C-alpha cells in the first residue's frame, strides 16, 4: 500500500510541475503516448516558474533519492542546458532545511546529553542542508570549531518506499525491456540500496573520513577534517570545521589568483590515487562536497567533506581497469577488445576484429582534444550502442566508480576546460602498473604472505612425508596393475584350447583395467563407466562358464 501511495505522489508531483512537457513522447509506443495525452495532469495549470526551477522543486519535493539524481546531473553541463544545470546546483547544499530545534532534540537523544553540556555554542540555524542530513556550526567546550551533522527525521521510511519502487521498475525492465537482462537493473538498484543506507549511518561515514584522512595524511593534494569520536554515533557526527572556497565558485578562485590548471590536474591525481593506490575512493565528489584551500594559490589544496559514499575495488578490478585505460591511451583497441572478451564482459564467441573496429570508431575521435571539446555524454551513448550490438553486460560493481568518473569530469570541466585528461592520467597508470608487476609489487606480495607462510611452516615436514608415502603407494599400485595385465596376456597366449567364454571374460577384465589408466589418490572416485561395464561382462562369462 505504501508503494502505491508513493507512486501516486510521484505522479502528482510530475503533474504539479508539468514535467510531462520534458518527456520525449514521440519516441514512446502509441499506446503510451495516448495514455500520456489522457493523463489527469493536463488539468493542472501550467506553472509560471522557469523549467529549471520546476525540475529542482519537483526533485526536492520527491525526496533524497531524486535530489541525489539532480546533484549528479548538475555537474553535466555538456548534457544539460545552462538554465537547468544552474538550478540543479542549488540541490548540492541548499535543500530546504528542517527545524533547528528538531536537530537539537535528535542530538540530545542520540548523545544522551544536553547540547549545552556538549557545546560551548551551538547555532540553531543550519549551516547547510542536504538530501540526507543537515549541518550546524558549533564550538566544543575547549573552543574548537566543529560542525554537527544530523540525520533528517523520518528519512529512512521515505527511502525504503523509493527503493521498493525502484526495485519494481527495475524488475519490470529486466523482464520486458530488450536490454534489461544485459544491463542488470535489479543488481544496480541493489547496489544503490546498500550505498544509500550506508549513508544513513553517520558512524560509518565517520569511519570513512578517518580512513581517507590516514590515506592522505600530510598530503598537499587534499585535506580531510578530523572526526571527534566522543560525540559521534549513527544519527550524529561531529567533525572539525574547515574553511575554504567552494570549488564551483570560479570567480572567487580567480580573485585569489588560484592556479586552476594545477587544481584541475590535482583532481585527476587524487581520483587515480584513491582508486589504484588505496582502492578506497570518495564516491560523492559533486561540487557541494569539495572546497579549496587558497592560502597558497599557486599550489592549491582540495578540502573534502561528506564521506557517506565511498567505493573500493578488488585487485582484479584494479588491474583490469588499468590495463583497459592504458590500452585506450595507447589506442590499442585490439587489446581493449581482447580484455573485454577474456574478462567475460562480452561473449566468448564475439568476433574480435569486429569488436575492435567498433571500439575504434567510438574512441578515436576523442583523443588529442582538450576536455572542453570532449562530450563524454556522447561517448557513453555511442558505447551503449556498441554494447547493444555485442551484447556487452553492465558490471554492477563498477557503477559507483562510473558515477565518480562523471563527477570528476564535471568538476574538471568547470575548473579548467582545456585540461588534457589523457596526458594527466597516463603517467600515473603506467607508473602504477610498473610498481604492481615489478620488484616493488612482488616484494609487497611476499611481505603480505610471509605471516601465513610462517604459520603453516610447522606442518610442512608432515605434509612432505605424507606426499612421499602417497607416491610410493601409487608406484606399488601401478606395478601391480602392470603385472596383472602381463599375466592376462601370457595366459591368453598359452591357452590355445580355452573356450570362447574365457576369451571374452579375459578381454573384458583387461579392457576394464586398461580403460582406467589414470591413477590418483582418489582413484576409487575416478573409475570410468567403461571399466564398470567391461568388468561386469567379464563376471558374466566367468559365471556362465562355471
UniProtKB/TrEMBL annotation:
InterPro entries, alphabetized = ABC1_dom, Kinase-like_dom_sf, UbiB, UbiB_bact, UbiB_kinase
Residue positions binding ATP: 127-135, 149
* Entry keywords, A to Z: ATP-binding, Cell inner membrane, Cell membrane, Kinase, Membrane, Nucleotide-binding, Transferase, Transmembrane, Transmembrane helix, Ubiquinone, Ubiquinone biosynthesis
What positions constitute the catalytic site?
284 (proton acceptor)
The keyword Transmembrane helix belongs to this UniProt entry's keyword annotation: yes
Kindly tell me the pathway this chain contributes to: Cofactor biosynthesis; ubiquinone biosynthesis [regulation]
One Gene Ontology cellular component annotation? plasma membrane
Question: What's the Enzyme Commission number for this chain?
Answer: 2.7.-.-
Segments forming domain ABC1 atypical kinase-like: 91-340
Its BP terms in the Gene Ontology are: regulation of ubiquinone biosynthetic process; ubiquinone biosynthetic process
List, alphabetically, the Pfam families matched: ABC1
Q: Which GO terms describe its molecular function?
A: ATP binding; protein kinase activity
Residues crossing the lipid bilayer are: none
Q: Which residues form the signal peptide?
A: none
SUPFAM superfamilies reported in the protein's UniProt record:
Protein kinase-like (PK-like)
| PANTHER family noted in UniProt | CHAPERONE-ACTIVITY OF BC1 COMPLEX CABC1 -RELATED, PROTEIN ACTIVITY OF BC1 COMPLEX KINASE 7, CHLOROPLASTIC
The free-text function statement in the UniProt record for this protein reads: Is probably a protein kinase regulator of UbiI activity which is involved in aerobic coenzyme Q (ubiquinone) biosynthesis.
What does the sequence similarity comment in the record state about its family?
A: Belongs to the protein kinase superfamily. ADCK protein kinase family.
Q: What is the protein name for this chain?
A: Probable protein kinase UbiB
UniProt organism field:
Alkalimarinus sediminis
Amino acid at each position: 500500500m505504501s508503494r502505491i501511495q508513493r507512486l501516486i505522489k510521484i505522479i502528482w508531483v510530475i503533474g504539479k510541475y508539468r514535467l510531462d512537457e520534458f518527456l520525449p513522447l514521440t519516441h514512446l509506443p502509441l499506446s503510451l503516448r495516448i495514455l500520456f495525452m489522457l493523463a489527469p495532469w493536463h488539468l493542472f495549470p501550467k506553472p509560471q516558474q522557469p523549467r529549471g526551477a520546476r525540475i529542482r522543486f519537483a526533485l526536492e519535493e520527491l525526496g533524497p533519492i531524486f535530489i541525489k539524481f539532480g546533484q549528479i546531473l548538475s555537474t553535466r553541463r555538456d548534457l544539460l542546458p545552462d538554465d537547468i544545470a544552474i538550478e540543479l546546483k542549488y540541490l548540492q547544499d541548499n535543500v530546504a532545511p528542517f527545524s533547528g530545534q528538531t536537530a537539537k532534540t535528535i542530538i540530545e537523544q542520540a548523545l544522551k546529553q544536553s547540547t549545552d553540556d556538549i557545546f560551548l555554542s551551538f547555532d540553531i540555524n543550519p549551516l547547510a542542508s542536504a538530501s540526507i542530513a543537515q549541518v550546524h556550526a558549533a564550538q566544543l567546550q575547549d573552543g574548537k570549531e566543529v560542525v554537527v551533522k544530523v540525520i533528517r527525521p523520518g528519512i529512512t521510511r521515505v527511502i525504503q518506499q523509493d527503493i521498493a519502487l525502484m526495485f519494481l521498475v527495475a524488475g519490470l525492465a529486466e523482464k520486458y525491456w530488450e536490454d534489461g537482462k544485459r544491463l542488470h537493473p535489479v543488481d544496480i538498484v541493489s547496489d544503490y540500496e546498500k550505498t544509500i543506507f550506508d549513508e544513513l549511518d553517520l558512524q560509518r561515514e565517520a569511519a570513512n573520513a578517518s580512513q581517507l584522512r590516514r590515506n592522505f595524511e600530510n598530503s598537499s593534494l587534499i585535506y580531510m577534517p578530523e572526526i571527534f569520536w566522543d560525540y559521534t554515533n549513527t544519527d550524529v557526527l561531529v567533525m572539525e570545521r574547515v574553511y575554504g572556497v567552494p570549488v564551483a565558485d570560479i570567480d572567487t578562485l580567480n580573485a585569489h589568483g588560484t592556479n586552476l590548471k594545477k587544481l584541475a590536474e590535482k583532481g585527476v591525481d587524487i581520483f587515480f590515487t584513491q582508486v589504484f593506490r588505496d582502492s578506497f575512493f570518495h564516491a560523492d565528489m559533486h561540487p557541494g562536497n569539495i572546497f579549496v584551500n587558497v592560502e597558497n594559490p599557486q599550489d592549491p589544496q582540495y578540502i573534502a567533506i561528506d564521506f557517506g559514499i565511498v567505493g573500493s575495488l578488488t585487485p582484479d578490478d584494479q588491474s583490469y581497469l588499468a590495463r583497459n585505460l592504458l590500452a585506450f591511451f595507447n589506442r590499442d583497441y585490439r587489446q581493449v577488445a581482447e580484455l573485454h572478451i577474456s574478462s567475460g564482459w562480452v561473449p566468448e564467441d564475439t568476433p574480435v576484429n569486429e569488436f575492435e573496429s567498433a571500439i575504434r570508431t567510438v574512441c578515436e575521435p576523442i583523443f588529442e582534444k582538450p576536455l572542453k571539446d570532449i562530450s563524454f555524454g556522447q561517448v557513453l551513448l555511442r558505447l551503449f550502442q556498441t554494447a547493444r550490438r555485442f551484447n556487452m553486460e553492465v558490471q554492477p560493481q563498477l557503477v559507483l566508480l562510473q558515477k565518480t568518473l562523471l563527477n570528476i569530469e564535471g568538476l574538471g570541466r568547470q575548473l579548467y576546460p582545456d585540461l588534457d585528461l589523457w596526458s594527466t592520467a597516463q603517467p600515473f597508470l603506467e607508473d602504477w602498473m610498473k610498481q604492481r608487476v615489478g620488484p616493488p609489487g612482488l616484494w609487497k606480495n611476499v611481505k603480505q604472505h610471509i605471516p601465513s607462510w610462517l604459520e603453516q611452516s610447522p606442518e610442512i615436514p608432515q605434509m612432505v612425508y605424507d606426499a612421499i608415502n602417497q607416491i610410493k603407494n601409487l608406484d606399488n599400485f601401478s606395478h601391480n596393475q602392470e603385472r596383472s595385465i602381463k599375466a592376462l596376456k601370457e595366459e591368453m597366449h598359452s591357452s590355445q584350447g580355452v573356450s570362447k567364454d574365457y576369451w571374452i571374460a579375459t578381454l573384458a577384465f583387461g579392457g576394464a583395467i586398461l580403460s582406467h589408466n589414470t591413477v590418483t589418490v582418489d582413484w576409487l572416485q575416478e573409475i570410468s563407466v567403461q571399466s564398470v561395464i567391461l568388468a561386469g561382462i567379464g563376471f558374466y562369462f566367468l559365471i556362465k562358464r562355471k
